Structures are given as structure tokens and as C-alpha cells.
Amino acid sequence: MRERNQSVKLGLIVLDLILAGLSFSLATILHFYVIDPEKRAFVNPDDQGLFAPAGLFPDQYPVLAAYFFPGLLFALSQVMVFVVTDIYQPARSRHPVRETVLIGRGVLLNLILILAFLFFYRGASLSRLVIAYTAILAVILHGSGHFLFRLYLMRLREKGVSVRKILIVGNGSLAYRFYEKVMRNQIYGYRVIGVVGAKKDAHPTLANHLLGPIKDFEKLARQINPDIIVYALSEDHKRLQKVVEFCDSEGFDCRIVPDMVDLITSHARIEDMDGMPVLTLRDIPLKNGYNRFLKRGFDIVFSGLVIVLTFPVWLVLALLVKFSSPGPVLFAQDRVGLDRNLFKCYKFRTMVVQDQSVSDTTWGGPTDQRVTRIGRLLRKTSLDELPQFINVFLGDMSVVGPRPERPHFVQQFKTRYSHYMRRHSVKSGITGWAQIQGLRGDTSIEKRVQADIYYIENWSFLLDIVIVLRTVPSLISNPGQ
Asked: 164-262 is classed in which CATH architecture?
């Protein structure tokens, strides 16, 4: 039923292109014609460099000429940000307030990208106030637009416009769960017109929709002529074959709800193995070669820049660590990384030298007596983790990913938390989604695992950039964790 989701998504994208352009236009008018009209005299389209209109607009409209192409850029980049941040996902944005919050985040991210572009590209002369007004108007217009768009679609569905009728074959819990999801997503234009199954075994909610027993399925299907027949019976493959053959012979669109639905996530996909369909339960974006290449390229460039630019800081910290207590400057410890492989994780030493069996199996805390005075400062500022950029540069870690853990604790956690080992399907990171949520240090392991899995299943390059940008404010608001 993806086609309906795609139609709604396409409609929202077109709407957002219009609203983003309208936001920029209104902001330009507000600034140059309402708030500060004197500024129009200083607008010169020829100063726009890359955005120069090249004679496309009459000379008497300098503001239009100067701001047309920047407005187009803003509209396109705004929609691209919305797409990348999954604003249009069916599972998202059902409540208007939550949807407006998500839109606000997308607008803020686009604002940061536009300002960063203007900072590095000095060829264009654009009013920063216009951009600020645009962001405010964009949140209002996009939030209102999405709400009205969905309200309009719901009104159309209530009138029966573009509604597809569904007949469900099955009357148990599996059929009910499908029915419930259809009812919860009526915006996509599906309506259950009946259920086929035995009355005595029917789910209470489905009992009101029963049309007859399974043996009368073919007769009932011909009578009511549904657009889609959904098979939702557990462990009855012979009957399934008959239903599929009937749908093929009569031209009905047949869909199947698998009885392993509890195992299948929204990230599942079907792959082809020499003509045989194979169901992949969890489609991880970073298993894609292009995504891995993109992430690795960013890791090399970013870690290289950090190492070079902060090297003087490294020298100062190395001296402080060396004089604080006897022992090496760097501390290397086994951690579990990608595909459960071990690697040496580097940090500035923050504790007195001790037996490895103790350091590998003891959980440190804020009052740990083994921590030196300099070490306490390094931990509070997270400067002890700077050498991990060496791990990133060498390929053992990534800038963004789940934090690596010691083998001793991995063995403990994997028995307590059912999905813990899924963290090792990507490279470990210096920072991550869990860390910017405040889940650092002595916090809930279960919540950290949930945050890490969310990152793994929803990875995008833009998400990595967002996490990097939010890491420093997170460290400031949660020092010492």
C-alpha cells in the first residue's frame, strides 16, 4: 500500500515547495516594503555573484531580481532537508503539535545550512533579517499547511473520494491488528468493507464486520467486489494458495499480512538471491556501499582536521598527564566495535596506573579514587577522548556511532538487554544520538540501546551532521557525564 503513502508524500512535497517560496517572498516584502523600505535603495542585483539575475528581470524591480534565485535555493533546500529528516514518513507527524515541532527542527537546520553557505560564499549580499523572517514564517506556514492538507484529505476520504475498499480474509488477532492500522491511517484512503471468517473465533471488534464464513469467500468477494483482498490468516498456507489463485483469476489485488509480523520491522525489505526472495528483517542504511563510502570520507576529513587543529592542545594535555602521576600519557584499552571485533581504543590517561584486569572489569564513577586531579578535569570536559580521533582516522571508529564498550561489560549487557548486540552492526563512535539526548555516563543502558538502535536504523549523512553540531551544546549542558 506504499502507492498511497507516496501520493500523500508527493502532495506534501509540492505543497512545501510552494510554502517555502511563499515564506521567502513574504519575508522579503516584509523587510523591504513594510519594516525598512529605505533599504531598497541599497539593493543591487549585480552584487549577488552566483545569484545575479543576468538581465532576467526589469531594472525597476531590483529586489525581485536580487532575491529571486536565493528564494528558489531556500525553497529547494528546505524540501531536501524535510525529505532527509523524514518529515514525510507515514509513522511521523500525526499530531499537529508534534508535526509542527518536527517542521521547526527542519526549518532550523535549513537556516543553519543557508547561513553556513553564506558565511563561506561571500559573493552574495543578502539581508540576514530576510532569512530570519523567512524561518519564522516557514514554521507558521508549513505547520498550518500540513495540518490543512491532512484535514482536506480526511474530508475527501469521508466523502468517499478516492477510497479503496478492503476485504479481510481472517478474523483473529492478526486480522484485527491490520484492521486497527487501517482505521488509524484513514488519510491514505483505505476502508474495510467486510471480514470473512468464522463467527465463534472472531475478534470482538471484527465480529461486527463479519460477512460470512471462509467457505463462502469466493461468492462474497464477487458480490461486494473489493479493490483489495487482504489475507490475514495464520499458518494456513493451503488456503492462502487458493485465495491467491482466486484473486489472480478474478483480477483482484491481493495483499498478504505474514504471520511472522512480530518479527518484521518497518525497516525490513525483500532481497533477491538468484530468483529466490529473501526477507531481510532489518535494512541497515550503513550496509549500503555508497553510504559507507560517504561516512568514511567524512570521518577521514573531519578527524584529520581535528587532529591537526587541536595538536597544540594535545601537547599541553600530554604534559599535564605526564606530570600528574607516573605512567604513559595515552591509555589503550580493548573495546568491542563493528561486527563484534576488538580494537584498541585510545584516551588520555585519567587514572593512576593499575592492573589491566581491574581497569577492564571495573565500572568507574564520578567519585572514583583512582582518577587523578588532571584526569577529573579531562573527564569533565571530555578532553580525555581526543585521542579517539586517531581511532577514527585509522578506521576503527567513526565520528558518530554507538559508544564502544569493554568486552567484560558487553557480555553482561547482551544477556540483560535483548537488542544490545545490534549496536555492533555499525562502527563505534566518539559521539552519537544517545549522547546528544543526555544519555552519557551513569545513565540508563536500556535507553542508550534504544537511542543507538534508532540511529542505526535511521542513519543519514545529514543526521550525522546534526549530531556533530549538537554535541558541543550537549557537552556544555551536561558537563562531566
From this structure: 3-Layer(aba) Sandwich (3.40)
